[in-house]
Amino acid sequence: NKVSAGEDATVPLPAATMEPREIAAAARSFSAMARIVGPDPKAVKMRRHAFHLHQSGSTTLSASAVLLPPGALADPPPLLARICASHGHAGGVALTAASLVEAFLVAEQRDSPSEELQPRLVPEARLDVLVEAEESGNISRGDSGAPQWLSAELLAMVDVPASADSVSSLLTYDGSLIGSSSWDVGWPLADVNQKQVEYDAGSSLEYNRKNVYAESVDPSTIAKSATRIAILGVSALTSSNARHINVPPTPQRGDSLLVVGSPFGILSPFHFFNSISVGAVANCLPPGAVRSALLMADIHCLPGMEGAPVFDKNSCLVGMLMKPLRQRGSNIQVQLVITWEGICTAWSRNKLELIEQVSNELLDDKSADSKMVESCSMDNHRRYSPQQEWLSSDKCSSFGALEIWENFTFRFTT
């Protein structure tokens, strides 16, 4: 559209932008709350988390999530399709902060958390996502209804190196040595005595090691953990009820932002679900780069909103909210956004080639393990071992026996 400014000149009209309520209405279709429930008899899984529910020996944690039904993205990262295919998953996916699930990984993955393409949760751990009723497919489009819980499975935990590098540079820019940086990543909390307790991404890596603090963790490790994304499969999300979402050009300082998240979600899911926060891009990182992997946002967010999708003034997907940059010993926070551009760069075809290589190695290892188990089974017909007696006794559950047997064959083959 143009308006006349004389006989030989025209002035273009400014492009129409959406009202915040219109952006929110469109954005809620791509927003969810992720919940994990698992056994926790010693009540330790909630450590380093802002809030939780613990009852009857189980702990429940929650975070926000980006919801992507099949076909929602015109050009999804190749890695997403590869991960779904490797798990035989044909439904939609939800992306959330990996810190949500790390405490419920099996011991060998939990003790040294890193990128995992075949993550395994402890037995009896359960994942769900809360979605708008429209997205659950249980009611007709346009009708109102209560949000619905949909079952989910953990497909992978993947790093975003470019965003992690930007976070690491923030933690170390003042030239401080490891352990003396004035910056951290995480929500500042207060205990029952009103003393500030620092729950951050770095210390979650060390939560089961006594007398070890986040200050001793390498900043690059903290940054990787804070930007790591868990990919959840949601089979009930199908293309029949999918909407489409666009990705904007590189965000610029001053651009409007809208976040749809669920702060303190699990404490009262239907009250906090898909709450709205608005603000603007304060700065882009790395400084001076053509493509931004991380954004500083002037926006008010609360614990539990990590993992939430972030949208621009045209309801395009800008990225995913992470835990904030925080000044140690104070409540000063800077909200950080992992850009979708950074995610796509990290999950590109180059990354896919590495995934393929690792997958082939896993298949070779499984084949070798299968042959070894078969060989051991044949040998067991000829001789009886004390280990076999222990494994068959009531002292060992079937899961424990499998884990010990796998460890035994691994040590034997190496």
From TrEMBL:
Q: Which residues form a coiled coil?
A: none
GO MF assignments: serine-type endopeptidase activity
* Pfam families attached to this UniProt entry: Trypsin_2 (PF13365)
**Origin, by domain of life?**
Eukaryota
**Biological-process GO terms, alphabetical:** protein processing
According to the UniProt record, one GO cellular component term is: peroxisome
* Protein's UniProt name: Uncharacterized protein
Protein species of origin: Aegilops tauschii subsp. strangulata (Goatgrass)
